[in-house]
Amino acid sequence: MQINRRNFLLELSGLVFCILSACSQGKSRKEKRKGEPDMELRPHHILDIVSDHGQDIRYTPHAYGHSLHIVAPRLLLDPGMKIRLVVGADAVCEGCMHLLPDGRCADVLAQLHPSPSKQAYNDVLDCRLLDLLEIEQDSVMTVRKYLQVVNAKVPGIEEICTHPKENREERLAGLMKGLVKLGIRG
Question: Does residue 186 fall inside a structural domain?
Answer without folding.
Answer: no
